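User: Can you model how pyridoxal-5'-phosphate sits in this protein?
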Amino acid sequence: MSSGDTSKIPNSLQEHWMPFTSNKDFKENPRLITGAKGVYLTNHKGKKMIDASSGLFCNPFGHGRKEITEAVAKQLEQLDYCQPFQQGFGGSFELATKISRHTPGNLNRIFYSICGSSAVETAIKISIAYHRARGESQRFRFVGRERGYHGMNIGGTSVGGMINNVKTFASVLMPGVVHMRHTHLPEHKFISGQPETGAEIANDLERIATNFGGENIAACIVEPIAGSTGTLVPPKGYLKKLREICDKYGILLIFDEVITGWGRTGSAFASQEFGVTPDIMTMAKATTNGVVPMGVIACKEEIYDAVMDASPKGAVELFHGYTYSGIPVAVAAALAVQDIIEKEDIFNRAKEMAPYFQKGLFTLKDIDVVENIRGYGMMGGIDLKTNVKPGKAGFECFKACYEAGVNFKATGDCLIIAPQFICEKKHIDEIIDKLRTGILNYSKNLKN
Ligand SMILES: Cc1ncc(COP(=O)(O)O)c(C=O)c1O
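Assistant: Here's the modeled complex, given as structure tokens:
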């Protein structure tokens, strides 16, 4: 165990099997977070760090928001839990109405799940239920995309395309899933915003429809901006083309907006930002500012109507749901978030700060070990030159940046940067300065 103040380290770190973590490395040299306020985190050594990834894209409205704490505490006192099957409480309906005011087109029917992964599973199941209700139960195939991330349940892992997440579990994945190519082209170097080239990659969907029969495909799912793999921004025209091909074959288009939802691009959803309306949309993370787990699935009205109309009155129309679907504490947190969004004009705030963040991010281009940078709105990815084996550079650089006082997530050899929307220019400056220090320290250690 490292030197320093160990008083905040529990007696044993062995029993907790940590998710997506190098457990052995962590337990040798733990990084424990003991407090969070605004844009800052404090670790067990008492060091203050700036949060450059909004947690895991979860807390864009700032840590320790009193309005959310109070709303959750009040809700717990009044109604701590009520079962969501064949019963309800007012808040979940009120929240659905508020969410539907922000969703694009007529995606006005709102289903709740527990997290992003369960939102994706729900979207997959609703697609199947919809086609079945309309007499098209032959549609069993799903189309995902290389480098996509849709959570870690079986459906999401199947349509996802990040190889390390998939390979151990290949034997239990969903049948009938086909992947399009990802949209990152070799010429996409140091581009802030949408690449000009690559829209034609959407024709992969047309080829898949031709090869497997468009009438057999239930849905195509993509993240409008692929987040977890390192901010792959869609080429201009790409999403529109996907929409056209889906319409041609009656394939549902699902946008997984678990990361891009609630302002990350500067619009409420990437759908509005890029002017393309999906049939189903998933959200999670920022819905509650990350403080209580919640997933949301927004569907077009005709999807809901088709599933409703297929069952007689009195029957359960969709045999799907979770014990924690839209529970009171999650709803209370999400309603408080809705108030913050409105009062603080959050989407415009993110939109106004985005050019400043993007400019700062791309100043890191001159560092020798930086291979590429991509960005859109309040998100960005910094690819490092791969060192010895894939993933090592990202992890080592993340640790050097942590020591330099900036916290974020690294995926493989990409640093994922997603500042909070409450950041002022001085916070963006601090993030960029500390990233420079951390990346340079990492690179010096390489040479030693
Ligand atoms: C696009 C996308 N979908 C789904 C998920 C899964 O969300 P969760 O970890 O809440 O299950 C994530 C998580 O990062 C995500 O980025």
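A couple of observations from the model: The CA atoms of residues 32 and 227 lie 25 Å apart. The radius of gyration is 22 Å.
User: Helpful, thanks.
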